[in-house]
Amino acid sequence: MRTQIAAANWKMNLTLQQGEALLDAIIAQPHSLNANQQAVFAVPFPYLAMAQQKLAGKQNVFVAAQNCYSKKNGAYTGETSVEMLQSLGIQYVVLGHSERREYFHESNQFLAEKVNICLEYNIRPIFCCGEPLSIREANTQNAFVAKQLEESLYHLSAEQLQQVVIAYEPIWAIGTGKTASSAQAQEMHAFIRSQLAGKYGTAVADSISILYGGSVKAANAVDIFGQPDVDGGLVGGASLVADEFVAIINALKK
Ligand code: PEP
Q1: Which residues are catalytically annotated?
Q2: Which of the 8 DSSP states describes residue 154?
Q3: Looking at the whole model, is its pTM more than 0.85?
Q4: Atom of ligand 1 nearest to the CA of 9
Q5: CA of 108 to the centre of ligand 1 (A)
Q6: Quick check: 184 and 227 in contact, CB under 8 A?
Q7: Ligand 1 within 6 A of 237 CB?
Q8: Residue 8: which H helix or E strand, with range?
Q9: Is the CB of 170 under 6 A from ligand 1?
Q10: Phi and psi at residue 171, to the nearest 5°
Q11: Minimum-distance ligand 1 atom for the alpha carbon of 11
């Protein structure tokens, strides 16, 4: 069975003390992670070391960065390199979140460079894709997402692609309270997998975890995660509430 992942995206929220308290509250609650399940916490850069320390030794629990820069090092004031993340023991980086694409103008080509440098340092990208509302309304979401995958990922070898986690996040469902129906999520996840199969073969496509993101909460997680091609979720708002996120972890497919 593919790895099932509940990934928290704190975005630019919480003070250090609030972040510590949230992780403490989550750790304190009973949650069950099987061998094929993971919980990932994408916390702001200044909290990475704190989260690494707090979660050290916890089975199948990982800390992620929410971004990185595409260059190895040098005169890039304010940026964070993958080598820095690696030196902290970080194993995942969220790339191509729609907020980065929209507010920071990150293109598919720029994201391909970030994917490359992450893989060079053995850090696994959680690569986000997904269409805006106008594209969904025009019913051209498949072509839109296929282009994102093609331009950012298809230069990779099959072995490299297998280090990537894909997160399908329809932009119209992020932070809006509007969730894609489980049928809409399944339809796009199956499409993404079929595209990967066309390029890399069925065995590779079947091994890749595809997460759904967009207003996932405890109340809808079981339904969404229960879909055959949905391998967990990337969760924003609900990951800031301990009870909600623990319930979301526990909603992963067994
Ligand atoms: C996200 O941050 O990737 C996200 C899906 O946010 P929300 O769960 O708040 O919609």
Answers
A1: 97, 169
A2: T
A3: yes
A4: 2
A5: 20
A6: no
A7: yes
A8: strand 4-9
A9: no
A10: -60, -30
A11: 2
Whole-number Å distance, alpha carbon 186 to ligand 1 midpoint, is 18
DSSP states along 10-31: --S---HHHHHHHHHHHHHS--
Contact 230, 248 (CB under 8 A): no
Ligand 1 pocket test, candidate residues 216, 230, 240, 245, most atoms within 8 A of CB: 216
Residuewise pLDDT in 10s, the chain (254 residues): 899 999 999 999 999 999 999 999 999 997 779 999 999 999 999 999 999 999 999 999 999 999 999 999 999 999 999 999 999 999 999 999 999 999 999 999 999 999 999 999 999 999 999 999 999 999 999 999 999 999 999 999 999 999 999 999 999 988 887 788 999 999 999 999 999 999 999 999 999 999 999 999 999 999 999 999 999 999 999 999 999 999 999 999 87
Tokens of 177: 């309270």
φ, ψ at 163 (rounded to 5°): -90, -10
